[in-house]
Amino acid sequence: MRRLIGIMKKNYTVDFPDIFKNLKRGPQIITLKDMALISAYTGISSGQKIVDAGSGSGFLAIYLGNLVKPDGKVISYEIRKDFAEIAKQNVKKAGLEKVVRIKNKDVSKGIEEKNVDVITLDLPEPWKVVKNAKKSLKKGGWIVSYVPNIEQVKKMVEECEKQRIKHVHTIESFIREIIVRKKGTRPENTGIIHTGYISFFRRN
Q1: The predicted structure's pLDDT at residue 11
Q2: What is the pTM of this model?
Q3: What is the C-alpha separation between 45 and 39, in angstroms, rounded?
C-alpha cells in the first residue's frame, strides 16, 4: 500500500492496475493474463451478476467487480475463513464493497443466487458444482473452470456433458515479454508459461 500512497502523492492518476498490485496475497492467484481471457471470452460487462468460487485472496472477484460496476454484482464463495478474511480486506482496499461480496461458504453445498450471467470456478473439483451451477445460470450463461491439470479438465467436461451444458473450448495462454533496447531487441529468456487450463461451458 505504501507504493500506492507514493503514486497518489506524486499526483499520478491511480488506475485499477495500480490498486491491483497493492492487494494482499494469500493463496495462489489467477494471473491477469488468464483473468483477461475469462472476461473476453464470456463478454463480462457492466451490470451483470457473477458468482465466483473459491475466492482465495479475492483477486478474480475484484477484477470482475471492476468490470461489472456500478450496477452489477460479484458474489464470491470461499470455504476457508482465513482466505475469506483476506479477500474481504482486499475488496475494501479496492473500494468495491458495494459491488463484491465475499461469502465464507462451501459452494458445493449450493449456490443461493439465481439468474446469474457467469459462474467462475477456481476449485480443485469444479465438477461437483456443475449441477447446482446450471440451476443458477441464465439461459446462455457461462461456466468457466480454472484448473492446473488436464485430468481435471476431462472430468469437468464429462460432467458438463452429462448435465447437457455445452463445452465451448479449453485454452491456456503463455506470456513472454520483449526487451527493447538500442543494441538489439529480443524476447526475454523466460516468461509466464503454464498457469492453468481455462474451460468455457455454456448453458443452452
Answers
A1: 59
A2: 0.89
A3: 8
